[in-house]
Amino acid sequence: MEMRTRSCDSEEKHHDWDPISELEKKKKGIQIEGYQIEGLSIAGHETCVILPSLSLAFDIGKCPQRAISQQYLFISHGHMDHIGGLPMYVATRGLYRMKPPTIIVPAAIKENVEKLFEVHRAIDHSELAHKLIGLNVGEEFYVRKDLKVKAFRTYHGIPSQGYVIYSIKQKLKQEYTGLPGNEIKNLKSSGVEITYTISSPEVAFTGDTMSDFIVDDTNTDVLRAKILIMESTYVNNLSTVEDARDYGHTHLSEIVSYADRFENKAILLIHFSARYKLEEIQNAISAVPPPLAGRVFTTYRRFLMNKVVSNYITHLFSLSFTCEMNRSC
Fold it and tell me: Disordered: where is this region (predicted)?
């Protein structure tokens, strides 16, 4: 497969003030392997996973407030619980005069995503400024010189792909190790290539997929990334592996059966079915045997609490609005 590389080269000047960040000084989510990971993910409702230190997010089902601060957005596929908040994300950044975001989508859906924006422009009469990039499996996008993202193959019912984030470092070649600094400087000035590039997989995100991605030989870096953020829609025997595959998803038992393939330091499970209670998910995760035991995490409790707080605030607003309208409180 021919490797294609993209990068973001916009030099436009925009406001540095970020009103969303100003409202969210307190960190949320979970800290894993040096990365703060935030967001929401409930199957069929919404998924948005955020890495604020990298200013990027994966998927945007309903555009949680925290996502608006992220400059880069990577979409795994076109189901509404993963892409439904896209117009609002772009519109809100425009409202606050923030820099137009860069949005990466599977190349197969790029044209339709642009049509989606055209419809909203016609309805809303707003600019909805953004940069939209279609990426094929195997292609790379440079977030910055020391950070790139590569699309990898996933297996869902519609066009889909996951993403691997790589850190990029330059290391001095062995033959120049130990030389005085001035000699190294002279070699570099004379055009000698004294370093080589190391790309290390840091974080991988699957989006929705069957377990087939695990045994795909082209996805070795996905299983080598420090952190693998992957779906586990079904977690117990109330649903079978066949049920999961029928809907293009993964069952926790499949993850356990492929345990020896995962070299990741941490596996963060997301996208649990809304049918499960918190206790059921916790019990299923705590029962995961070695060699995965201790490496599997979930932020479901935090995601759930964020949702509860959001619903509570909405409820209070509704009561206040009703009282004001009726003048009866």
Answer: 1-20
